[in-house]
Amino acid sequence: MKNYIYTSYGEDCTINFAKHLASKLHKKDIIVLSGELGSGKTKFTQGILEYFDLSDEISSPTFTIVNEYAKNGINIYHFDVYRLSDSSEFYEIGGEEYFDNGICIIEWGEIIEDVLPDDYIKISFERDFTNENTRILNITTFGNKYDDIFSNIDGIVEK
User: Fold this and answer.
1) Given this model, what pLDDT does residue 51 score?
2) Which domains does the chain have, with CATH numbers?
3) How many CB atoms within 10 Å of residue 17?
4) CA separation for the pair 45, 23 (Å, rounded)
5) Is the pLDDT of residue 57 over 70?
6) How far is residue 56's CA from residue 51's CA, in Å, rounded to a whole number?
7) Long-range contacts of range 91-100, CB-CB < 8 Å, 24 or more positions apart?
8) Distances (CA, A) of 111 to 32, 80, 125
9) How far apart, in whole angstroms, are the C-alpha atoms of residue 93 and residue 88?
10) Residue 129 in contact with residue 147, Cβ under 8 Å?
11) Of 8, 48, 73, 157, which residue is the least packed, with the fewest Cβ within 10 Å?
12) pLDDT > 60? residue 123
């Protein structure tokens, strides 16, 4: 497990950080996003989708639990598990079957952390109350798969 911090100074910064990260993602990669409403989780997801030329299709999966995107053989699954009471409901919808079939981005993923594979990235978004546009992204990599994924992204600081 490694910990990093990234400071985003606005929406464009968050989107660009997500694009950089997206350039390193592959099938079976999982990113858990946590943070209060309006903290930047959807903007981050927008950046990943923009990298894969899917930005015109983004919508919040709030009422559908998961939105599926596909282009050029890449599947991206954008989950919002906020309305699930626990991981058993995630199993009931077959959620774990998505893990092997594409890149999974899971908003409010702390609700289902007990069912996640050993290797995943968790990004917690925090507001900086001294500047309304600034967000602090606390990044934790679980397992060994992502040990070097953040090594060449500008602005990343290892904790």
Assistant:
1) 95
2) 2-146 (3.40.50.300)
3) 25
4) 13
5) no
6) 12
7) 91/115, 93/65, 93/66, 95/65, 95/66, 98/66, 99/28, 99/30, 100/27, 100/28
8) 10, 10, 16
9) 9
10) no
11) 73
12) yes
